[in-house]
Structure formats: structure tokens, C-alpha cells
Design goal:
By secondary structure, the chain is an all-alpha fold. The chain contains ten helices and no strands.
């Protein structure tokens, strides 16, 4: 029995059509909706919380406490003390105030049990540093040079006597032992009254 060629071809096509998977549709409507809804994120920061209000005034309370002690130092007596002296009279008054602090410092060291020699060294140091700092305040270099020249001819040093020189001078007066150091403490508290009067007279002119 002969099978026609056309029928075999049709048979083969039909079998291949049955075995091939169905074609996917490219239409948008046929695609399943796979998108998921994501929660929206907000980039804006939450509103700042306001500090509790002062019930008496209705205003917001301060975030930093006030410092009355610091304000007093800036606007009070310490502000005037921090002002740099300029005139010779102001410089001399500043120097006298530094020297006037020696007794309180000496009493403090005595209460702490410091020896008389250490107390004498501390008193001489305060006086010596006040001398040097006062000269730095002076604006006339000629006057500074004159003071240094006086110290040189008196003590052999441009910046005044050393502690050892003062001890030697006290012993030359006949003092011995603790009396030497006590004399240095006492003399450190005193300033030259003639010089004080000179600068006070200048301030009145």
C-alpha cells in the first residue's frame, strides 16, 4: 500500500505541533502582575522637640546654665585687675599690689608647714618676678635701661639681687640662723616709699 508523500508530511507537521509547547504571548495584558508595593521612606527628619517652657514667662528654658561666676570675672573687679598698666604710675601701683600679696602667701606656706628658708625664697621670688614684669610694661626703653643700670651698680646684676646676695647682706648686718630668713620676708613686704611718692606725684601732674 502506498502512502502519499503529502499525507506523510501533514502527519509529521501535526505531530510536531502536538509535541511543541505553546508559544508565550508577548502582549502586556497576558503578563502576570509581579510588582510588589514597597513602603515609602521619608527623608525628612522628625520635627525637633522643644524644651519645656518656663511657666512664668512662657519662653523656652535655656539649654545651657548661666555662669554668674564667670560673668563676674569678666565684668567685675577681676576684669579691671587684668587690664595692662600703661603709665608709670599705674605700673608702680601694679607692682605694689604684687608685693602686697606676699604676706598672705607667706601665711599660707606657714600653715602648710614650710620652713622659714622656703618661705623666704618664695617671698623673694614674688618680689623679683614683679620687678621684671613691671619693666616689661614700661614703654620708655631709656627708663628701663636706667633701672637696669642702677641694679647693676648696686648688686652687680641687671635684674636685681639674687637670693644668695640678700642672705649675704643680712648676715653682714649681724643676723644669724632663722633671723636671716625672717629679715628677707619682712624686707620683701616693703617697697621704696620715695619711689612711690615720685610716681604718685607724676600721676597728679
Amino acid at each position: 500500500m502506498k502512502v502519499s508523500r503529502n499525507s506523510s508530511i501533514r502527519s509529521t507537521k501535526s505531530e510536531s505541533a502536538l509535541s511543541s509547547p505553546p508559544k508565550r504571548s508577548n502582549s502586556v495584558d497576558s503578563k502576570p502582575n509581579t510588582t510588589t508595593t514597597r513602603p515609602t521612606r521619608s527623608n525628612s527628619a522628625p520635627p525637633p522637640t522643644r524644651p519645656p517652657s518656663d511657666l512664668s514667662t512662657g519662653s523656652a528654658s535655656r539649654t545651657r546654665p548661666r555662669n554668674p561666676d564667670g560673668a563676674a570675672r569678666v565684668n567685675g573687679a577681676e576684669a579691671g585687675a587684668a587690664k595692662k598698666p600703661t603709665t608709670n604710675s599705674e605700673i608702680r601701683n601694679w607692682y605694689n599690689q604684687k608685693v602686697a600679696s606676699i604676706p598672705a602667701n607667706d601665711a599660707k606656706l606657714k600653715a602648710q608647714g614650710a620652713s622659714l628658708e622656703d618661705r623666704a625664697k618664695a617671698a623673694v621670688k614674688i618680689r623679683h618676678e614683679a620687678r621684671l614684669e613691671a619693666r616689661q610694661f614700661m614703654s620708655n626703653p631709656f627708663e628701663v635701661a636706667m633701672l637696669k643700670a642702677r641694679d647693676f651698680f648696686t648688686y652687680g646684676r641687671l635684674d636685681g639681687p639674687s637670693f644668695d646676695q640678700l642672705v649675704k647682706g643680712a648676715k653682714a648686718k649681724g643676723l644669724t640662723g632663722d633671723a636671716v630668713y625672717q629679715s628677707l620676708i619682712d624686707s620683701s613686704k616693703r617697697t621704696n616709699q620715695t619711689v612711690n611718692n615720685h610716681f604718685n606725684q607724676q600721676a597728679k601732674l
